[in-house]
Amino acid sequence: MSIPHSHEPPSPSPAQRYHVDVGATQRKLSIHIVEPQQVSSRADLAAFSLLEALDCDDRPTFAIDIRDSASASASSSTSASASTSASTSPTTDSHALLDVELVYCNPALAAADGLLAKIALFPDTPQQAFLSWLLGAADENDQGRRGKTHLFEGHIWATTTLGHLKIVSGVKSTGLRENSSSSPSSIDGRERKRPRYWPQMTTPPNVPPSTPANAPAPASYDYTLHPPPPNMSPHLLYFRSIDWARTSLGPMNLWSPQLRCIVNMMLNDSYPAVLFWGQRDVAMIYNEAYIQVIGHLHPCMGASARVAAKEYWSHLQPLVDHINSTGQTLSKHDMPVFLNRPDFLEETFFSFQFIPILDSAGQVAGYYQPLVETTKNNLLERRVSSLVEIGSQTAKARDLPTYWELVMDTLRISDKDAPFALLYAAEYEAFGDISSVPSPGGAGHLEQCLLKGSIGVEPGHPIAPKAINVKDGSNVFLPYLLNSAKSREPTLVHFDQLGLPESMLSGIDWKGYGDPCRCVIICPILPTTSEQVQGFLILGVNPRRPFDDDYQQFVQVLLRLLATSLASVVLFDEEIRQKENAIGQAAHIHEQLLSELKAKEKKFQRFAERADIAIFIIDPQTRKYIYRNQRWFDIFKFDINDTDDDAGNSWARIVLAEDLAACEAMFAQLVVERTVVSTEIKTKIPWCPPSEIQDPDYKPQEHFTWILCSAYPELGPDNEIVEIVGNVTDISKQKWAERMQKLRTESALESKKHLELFIDSTSHEMRNPLSAIMQCADGILSSCCFPDGDIPLPSPTMYASFIEQTLDAAQTIAQCVQHMKRIVDDILTISKLDSGLLVITPVDAQPERVAKHAVKMFEAEAKAAGIGMRFEVEQSYRDLAVDSVSLDPTRLLQVLINLITNAIKFTRLESSRLITVSIGASVSKPASTPSGVQFIDAKLVDDDRHLKDDWKHGSTLYIQFSVKDTGRGLSEEETSNLFARFSQASPRTHINYGGSGLGLFISRRLTEMQGGAIGLVSRYKKGSTFSFFIKARRTTAANRRGGSLPSIFPEDLTHRPGIAKEIEGLIDPSRPLIPRQDLNPRLGIPAQDPGHLPPPDLEELKGKNWLPETLHILVVEDNLVNQKVLAKQLRNLGCTVSVANHGGEALEFLKTTRYWKASDSSSEDQSCTGTANGTLPIDLSLILMDWEMPVMNGLTAVDKIRELERESRLTRHIPVIGVTANVRQQQIEMAMKAGMDDVVGKPFRVAELVERMRRVLEGFGMEGGVNVYTG
To answer: Domains of the chain, with CATH numbers?
Structure first.
């Protein structure tokens, strides 16, 4: 019977607790305002009237006159308190409400939408509760009260009384809910509107299929009337069979309507319910479902609860008294109740209410107690908690002993579901090792089970032996253990099946409720990674619960958790065992090797006698050599017939003068300290490294012999020094190899660094034009493709616009292709140089003419960049009367183009822009000068063999070319990095100026192959002069075999914009240009040609709802071609596009958007009113940010943007997508870490970019692609 064991006072409602908490918080946060002390301040304050202050107050404020309403309110409260208990709280009389007069309202209240009208209608509901609070009437059920304040119409109101006037001020509520019966409570005012939907029912209630469709209704469904309804259940017949006239309720026909109604409702309730009627006898009426609750008390229908349930009435009486005094319902949730079943006492949980039943006079006439069983939920919560604890704790185990211990510790916590438990570990005959991978045939037969833990019983008890021997067969659980191990499934065993004597079950401390278990479950424990059972859990079943499906599922989940944890323990244990085996094997091998070493020790001694080391013996007294082997004379290059055997003289001839003192100290250490000494010594003896392993890249230098000298004192029987024995090893080759290895390692690391920089810069240089090519191609394809496949007849304007756009895209593609070809040609040239396939072909040419044409090729480009160019012939060239020489003009022109290209590149951004190309000549080889050009003396390659043969046919001279610019100049550190493979002046050079870092290296190789060298002189911020010279043979004009200009130009020429036509004019001015083939699909190119990219469906992109015309994109890109093409493509999609050349401009652009918030107070509303010049603020949607840019790169820019967002300088998150050629995984992670929302690698198609833009915008709360701005 669900009877609470103690009387508990009703707990306060959540709203009341909230009011108390708010009041306490307000008291804690109250601020003491210091009263003004100066007389002048008081006078100034007194000069202002109350009305002036209220009129200036931005809070809604009004005043009421309470002179006539105070007495009425007081009398109303008095009468209300004296009223019957039918009304639980006093209310203000309506006459008092009518007496309230609104005498003032300030402008803020009048301006509030509808607020004044609602306050003015005081007598109406729901304003009565608000007015009652104004008049001081206490009402504990008023949900609008907030301590000394009141929540009404979305405002928190506070009062101040001044004489007969009460001033009421309100503050807008931002997070409190108003509990009012007249209007729905919600934080959002829009929820006060009419509901948008009907209540939805996902699963409608089932109606029995046997219900007749149009069956006639009986005369009455009332079980208390006569005649009763037909087809009553046995319990209803039992209810009708009671002689109610003999009970305190009286005859059924005299029952009140209230009693009849509640009785019929209870009898029809499918959940347990009971009705206690009357104040003295308290007669019981209960439904059929309540029988299982009262158990043996049934039948007691109509009997007095004080008599029939006298054992429980002491618990019910406090509930009855509380309801009689307050009229309030009492409830109890999840109360444990133990029901008598035929075989056991069942553990259940019920939630109940004790509800007062009122008569016609409003007095408590009875008590209605409905019950709802919550057993399943409570058991599930308890078992899940136990399973979580078991899984989390056993997962910490790293070995089997710890695992068994943790299993038992966690099971002890769940004493109700594990009142008894035995845990055994299985041991096998053949193979004790646990294998994570099961093998066919198993791992041997089960030999015994060892007890690892128990619950409720001590180890060694008859039912819990410490070991269960399989061969013994005497244990009662053994057959079930073997069966469970074979089936690998839990086995339920009842104690009455075992026929155990009482002595075996005595002495068991049953946990939980203390009742003996009726049955146990024998559970095999095996890891999920193996089929071999590792243990058994004999788990006692809760004696107060049936072993139903829920209990079985609990056991299955428990075993699964144990198996998962055991798998990790098994794997870890197996790993440890393998390591131990490996250590044991290593120790065995070590011992074996030691024995072998001892056996060969004598053999090594014989080898030492003939070892290739110098061995010597010195007499410590005379310091004379006693013995020196042949190797000693070979190393030190002494004559074997030399009679000077003085050790001091010998070492003075061997070691350097500064090392003699160290040698003397070493000898003294041998004699005095009698310790072994060993040291490396550099000698005076010259040494030559092997010629076959010398590195030609390093300068030849003088080497000396290095020796490793070791010596020890040989002691006699009286510990006296008999002799000093030593040996000398020639380590010159090792020392030289160490030095060479160090130099090569440093060179390799530097080369690797340069190669990585070259790959990144080349990838960047290749991907940028590829991206522009792809987007231009998309633009051409989209312009030529039509949805229906028919090409409409274009208008002249449309045709001209189409031709102009196509030509512009084609020119951009051509420019990008030429840029890519230059990089490919540089790499091809390097490949030819490395493989020896690049050939120097000398022909008769005029160097002056070649240089002039090199200058002419760049005149147009220099003019476009505002750079002045001039060509000068030095006097040395005129003095030697140089006209025609034999050289390779192709390679000469290639070097000139590289130097002029670099000069233009580094000069175009300077204020002073001038490039001077000069030519000179000399008979002798030009040399470096202290204040002039410093040529590179070390050569990477030898002179070309064709040129060597050509130089033999006449006199030679040196032609020198110089390219001087007024560019940015180079520092000393930057100068040292030039002319190396994949090197530029600095890692930022290719970002600001482009290039692959191969040009100067190629130029160096080409000049050295032509018998010359290259060098420079540079001053930072002043300019640079690059100069090179080549060796050439004089020729006469009559012997000239060809023109001064090559017919085949080097790879560096043909890719430059504007030079192709110049080259065609130089080679063959009459050569006609080959027209481009028309790519119209109607002219023969099949539509499904796999060699053509499918045209992007830009019309489809334009038609998508998420691309409105208000989408504003900022493109931050330093490459003007990519910037132009991408902006054009986005504008074609209907986007508004702004551009910036680097990150700094992007940050300045953000100040013009609506999301920028100035830091000073004077600019507080700048983000909403526009920029300083009066223009409207820009509604920026997204930023497309390049990475590698001058001034400020993309990563720095996006980091500063995120910093501005954290500082609230930007009012919302600005989505940023990285559009970059740096697409290595580490680079992408770096970009995302810096603050990018996504990264798109170059090259890309517009459709791909648009899809990524859509995802980013949707991810940040964009509706239709437009930011929902709420700031």
So the answer is: 14-28+43-70+96-172 (3.30.450), 234-373 (3.30.450.20), 396-429+445-578 (3.30.450.40), 606-689+702-742 (3.30.450.20), 839-1034 (3.30.565.10), 1098-1157+1176-1260 (3.40.50.2300)
